[in-house]
Amino acid sequence: MPIFKHSLRAERTVYAPPGERISDLGIPDHCISLHIANPGNLERRLERRLDGGKLIERLTLPGFFTFVPAFRQPEWFWESAVEILDIYLPAAVLEQIAMQSCVSAPQTIELIDRFAVRDPLLEQLALTFSAEVEQGDNLSRLYVESVQTLLAVHLLRHHCTVKITNFPKLGKLSPSKLQQILHYIQDNLDRDIGLADLAEVVQMSSHHFGKIFKQSTGVSPHQYVLQCRIDRAKKLLYNPQLTLADISQSVGFCDQSHFTNVFRRYTSVTPRQYRDRL
What we know:
Blueprint: E1 9-15, E2 22-23, E3 29-37, E4 44-50, E5 56-60, E6 65-68, E7 74-78, E8 82-90, H1 91-101, E9 115-117, H2 120-134, H3 141-158, H4 175-187, H5 195-201, H6 206-217, H7 221-236, H8 244-250, H9 256-267, H10 271-276
Helix pairs in contact: 1-3, 2-3, 5-6, 8-9
């Protein structure tokens, strides 16, 4: 399911057995596939070949990952139905985050073609992102870019041909820069703020900004912005002249349904119920 053009996206699919080997064309995204389930949750045999090379056979279980790096052409065979969560990360995004985040990054960033491996942290990140997508809400650009950056940094640390570990140590934002960011957020709550927008305010990379903001405030940029939207919405609900659609738009939600879902998640009541109690 696409989220934004040229950004992280997720698709959860039940694949029927193909009967014969099938081939896929190379795409400009790294594909990170998580085995979710299959009948009986027993081990299943999976065969894979990349770019016409050696055919490899492995047993795979729910919780196992398989990576297909960008532009590689895989050939597959499996014997029974299987549910897969595919996470797609554009190769250009991985390279960009490497250049922005590291003291010195290699010129070429290559993802390792992992086959039937476990990674508990990556699994948690993939499932959390998928759950947000499946809720049907229109995810904010800030949330998608934040998850995208976390995923890219994890891959750079653990799953690239050259492991990148020279990330600079970060402290906290200075009081003046923190106030600058907080004022920017308050002034732009009606917009779909992106992580890159916030980082640009203090002339910092997205990865560095996300970490240093959390160290400075105790919450992620996405969580902070959502809380600000809800706080402002509560104040606006006191004005009976404003419709729920007006308030939704003025605090940066794409539609009233998304506003209602997030408001209820933070307050346990809908905006209309909150207003009725005032």
